[in-house]
Amino acid sequence: MRVVHKWHKSSDRDLKQIAESLAYNCWKFTLTSVRGLQDENFHFTSKVQGMEVMTEMLIFLMQVTDRLIYEAMEPEDRAQFIGAMAYRFLDIILDNYNDLAGKDGPDRTDLVGLINERSTEYAEFSYAEDGPSYHFLRYFGERVGAIMGDDQDNKWVIDQMMEIEAPDVIASLKKSIGGIVGIDLD
Q1: 132 φ, ψ to 5°?
Q2: C-alpha–C-alpha distance, residues 22 and 130, integer Å
Q3: Assign residue 31 a region: left if phi > 0, alpha if psi is -120 to 50, beta otherwise?
Q4: What is the pLDDT of residues 146-183, one digit of tens each?
Q5: Contacts of 183 (CB under 8 A, 6+ apart)
Q6: Phi and psi (nearest 5°) for 102?
Q7: What is the pLDDT of residue 185?
Q8: Do residues 146 and 163 touch, judged by C-beta distance below 8 A?
């Protein structure tokens, strides 16, 4: 999958445009991750279940982004940036649910509630220079595990999310933040 990590032209972009571009890249990262789960023989019962996993991953990536840009942006700018990402995530998620023929997805209010609930819960976990804490990753893995179920095919999904998927999407996210947002994270 091709992901753009840099702007093609050097014109100025506002925070909203930058956040929306990063949000779109996050969507691509989650799509790649869900396809990877399928390739590893994790069992999805429906496309809606895949969308639910992607939604949890997007919320996770929004939380990671907030932690990564924390010291590089003024609080007001950071709040605007994360808010713009959240609104773009909402649009992407709802558009994709609508594309699933005959499937009613969550409404916007439900998704906003889910994002706010998860944000409150993730706020309890630490994020250091070397990345998210064990509890941060475990919480994420458990959220995905709750969606996937605990049948024989999916019993290791929490470990998969913590040990493989999360580090991979965080590495991709850091690269995008460096190129699109212009914040050096190395």
Answers
A1: -70, 150
A2: 21
A3: alpha
A4: 999 988 889 899 999 999 999 999 999 999 999 998 88
A5: 68, 69, 72, 73, 177
A6: 75, 10
A7: 79
A8: no
Q: Which secondary-structure segment (H or E) carries 31?
A: helix 15-39
- And the tokens for 80? 């605007």
> Which residues have CB under 8 Å from 132's CB, separation 6+?
64, 67, 125, 126, 140, 166, 170
Residue 39 or 2, more confident: 39
Through-space distance between the first and last CA atoms of the chain, rounded to whole angstroms: 24
Q: Of 35, 81, 34, which Cα lies nearest the Cα of 62?
A: 81
The token pair at 143 is: 């959220």
pLDDT digits (tens, 9 = 90+) for 55-82: 999 999 999 999 999 999 999 999 999 9
Residue 9 has pLDDT above 60, yes or no: no
**Can you say how many angstroms the Cα of residue 30 is from the centroid of all Cα atoms in its chain?**
7
